[in-house]
Amino acid sequence: MEPAHVHEDGRPCFTEEERQAIRQQLERMLANPLFKYSKRYPNLLRFVVESTLEGRTEELKERSLGVAVFAREPDYDTNLDPVVRTTAGEIRKRIAQYYHEHGHEAEVRIDLSPRSYIPEFEMHGPVQSTAAPALEAAPSTKPAAVHRWPWIAIGALAGLLVVFGFWLGPWGRRSDLDRFWKPVLDSSNTVLLCMGQREFLGSSPEPGQSSLTDLPSPSNGPVTLFQLYYMGSQNLSLSDVTTIGRLIGLLQSKGKAFRIRGQLSTGFADLRDGPVVLLGGFDNDWTMRLTGPLRFSFERDHDTFWIKDRQNPSRKDRFVNYRTPYLSLTEDYALISRTLDPTTARMVVVIGGLTGYGTMAAGEFLTDPGYLEAMAKGAPPGWERKNIQLVLATKVIHGASGPPRIVDRYFW
Predict the structure, then answer these.
(1) What are the Cα distances from residue 361, in Å, to 246, 294, 322?
(2) Rounded distance, CA 128 to CA 147, Å?
(3) Do 125 and 17 touch, CB atoms closer than 8 A?
(4) Under a CB-based contact definition with an 8 Å cutoff, are residues 361 and 334 in contact?
(5) N or C: which end of the chain has fewer CB within 10 A?
(6) Rounded to the nearest 10 degrees, what angle do helices 176-185 and 356-367 cross at?
């Protein structure tokens, strides 16, 4: 939108109708799922739009925005903490997605051009004032003023009904998926995705290569690239990749920052930095440690792996024997935990299966609103504020896992 006037110093000047149209469009965009589930994106976009409408574009610099929007210290290092740049980059992507959706073509366009934090506006037609037509001038008498109050009250009441209707209606209800992930998403800290890792694969050598049966020691030289390739810590299974992809998609859709680390390079201090998602069961030492004291945990006896129930320790029917040919496996089990860990004082989510099929089923369960909605129907009141453990089962048919289903649950 080209402003009607420009100040002498080059700052844009808007009419009241233009300001109103832009603000209405801003609220329309921020109510879209591309923005509504995030805190950072709406905060920054709203700040730069309002600052521009009020003629305060000199404030729209990276450091100033970091201080004003993200509560950074005035002398913070923008290179070490590029929160403004990364947030603005994501806003630009979401704006492009928003206007690419059908039905937004004729709306006021709000853009954030590259290398600038000053938004640009475009209107596809003349701006119409939305103000009500002026009433005929009448003598300023007290009776006339009294008669206007009922209409003001009715308008205010209607506005309140709209607001309450929004929050109480289906549009205002937080989904059960959001309620499950709320303790993670609402944290101001970055989420740590901690991947399980195998120490060493011990695979057969490729043609022409020497045997790799043990990790190289300092006495026989540094680790070569070929040896590094066969180390379990440098490899991920397809099931873990599929699951981590689901989690990344979920966190990105909610505007939540995250980092990925392997369990071998994750220390106790990392677990205290913020909420943690532990991916994997027996291949993730942190999963084994943090779920060990809980009701449900992972247990192993030689080739047999099972979900242990501390309230019924003799029960071992939720198991997988690793001597089973993989095409003969018919069922796998998984454990999901969402607990406030007393040791780290952080929210920890565990996603792990007895095999990769269970891990994939658990990842599908925690990223699909339908599964969590079904879980919530049988959950106790206030379940979203409780610690949760879910035991899942999934059918495995010719090497492919089926839909997850809950076979046990515990809330406290």
Answers:
(1) 11, 21, 19
(2) 29
(3) no
(4) yes
(5) C
(6) 100
Q: Is the pLDDT of residue 385 over 80?
A: yes
Position 58, amino acid: E
Query: CA nearest 392: which of 404, 401, 383, 400?
Result: 404
**195 burial via Cβ count (<10 Å: 0-12, 13-18, 19+):** buried
Residue with tokens 């390739």: 229
CA distances from 189 to 65, 85, 275, 386 (A): 19, 18, 7, 21
- Spatial separation of the C-alpha atoms in residues 59 and 47, rounded to whole Å: 10
**Radius of gyration, alpha carbons of the chain:** 28
CB-based contact 159:165 (threshold 8 Å):
no
**Phi, psi dihedrals of residue 393, rounded to the nearest 5°:** -130, 150
Map tokens 């103000």 to a residue. 131
Report the DSSP pairing between strands 276-279 and 120-122.
unpaired
Residue predicted with more confidence, 338 or 115: 338
Angle between helices 83-100 and 62-70 (to 10 degrees): 80
Average pLDDT over residues 376-395: 95
Count CB atoms within 10 A of the CB of residue 366.
25
Residue 9 has pLDDT above 60, yes or no: no
Q: What is the 3-state secondary structure (H, E, C) of 28-43?
A: HHHCCHHHHCCCHHHH
pTM over 0.85: no
Can you tell me the distance from the alpha carbon of 134 to that of 97, in angstroms, rounded to the nearest whole number? 40
Give the separation between CA 24 and CA 29, rounded to whole angstroms: 9
For the segment 190-227, what is each residue's pLDDT rounded down to a tens digit?
Answer: 999 999 987 655 444 444 444 444 444 445 667 777 66
- Two tokens, residue 283: 């291949």
Torsion angles phi and psi, residue 317, rounded to 5: -85, -10
Give 401's DSSP letter: E
